[in-house]
Design a protein that fits this description.
Layout lengths: L1 H12 L1 H12 L2 H15 L9 H11 L7 H33 L5 H14 L3 H5 L5 H11 L4 H26 L3 H5 L1 H12 L1 H18 L1
Helix pairs in contact: 1-2, 2-4, 3-5, 4-9, 5-8, 5-9, 6-8
């Protein structure tokens, strides 16, 4: 049983490595699997460990060379999963957030605390910025649902963030994923893209810190 659990978790958590094999064996079912993984990564607060950025990048790279993975369809599927996932997470937070926090140990309090602190500093645009931060991305809509953010405001930033996130990573994979250097150093390149994508977050943090320091003086 433990072996089966390990195989399943390894397969799901590193799905970006197995996409060609899934395409070969299951064809267009790969779109359903991709939708499910991205939806869960963004929509279920207990699954922040699932691949997100690297999965989008890998799919974009494969779409550039494979006729079985159409980039337009891939983009729409991933975008729909990202938007609906965040919306689901918001609803879970709004309806069951406080109960879940008090009754389960699967949600780490430090993750919730970090996300709340980020919201307090950056307000509504935190939904957009958190799209580019792994782990925090999963908790952001959940915390928004628990808090007082109006759903209409949340939806606007949710859609804008999803478009930017999916465009950046699938686009980068499509145009650069099959360059020999990138292909041979995939994990380093994916990490580099993540670092670059979170620069706006750190910029906002620095601005907020300077503003606080100026206020104290």
């Amino acid at each position: 049983m433990e072996t089966l659990i390990y195989i399943f978790s390894e397969y799901i958590m590193h799905f970006d490595k197995y996409i060609p094999l899934v395409m070969e064996n299951y064809g267009y079912w790969v779109y359903f699997i991709l939708f499910a993984i991205i939806f869960c990564e963004t929509g279920l607060v207990v699954t922040p460990f699932l691949p997100g950025d690297s999965l989008l990048f890998a799919c974009g790279a494969l779409a550039a060379t494979s006729s079985e993975l159409h980039f337009g369809t891939l983009f729409i599927i991933c975008l729909a999963a990202a938007i609906s996932g965040d919306s689901c997470n918001y609803w879970i937070g709004e309806e069951f957030g406080h109960k879940l926090l008090s009754k389960t140990t699967l949600i780490k309090p430090e993750h919730i605390k970090k996300t709340e602190e980020f919201y307090n500093k950056h307000g509504h645009k935190a939904i957009f910025l958190c799209r580019f931060a792994p782990i925090v991305r999963t908790f952001a809509p959940f915390v928004a649902g628990i808090g007082s953010m109006h759903y209409r405001t949340f939806v606007m930033w949710n859609i804008i963030g999803a478009i930017a996130w999916v465009s950046l990573f699938t686009g980068a994979g499509y145009f650069f994923g099959n360059v020999p250097f990138v292909k041979n150093n995939f994990h380093y390149v994916a990490l580099g893209i993540i670092v670059v994508s979170v620069i706006p977050i750190f910029t906002e943090i620095i601005k907020a810190q300077r503003k606080d320091d100026a206020t104290e003086k």
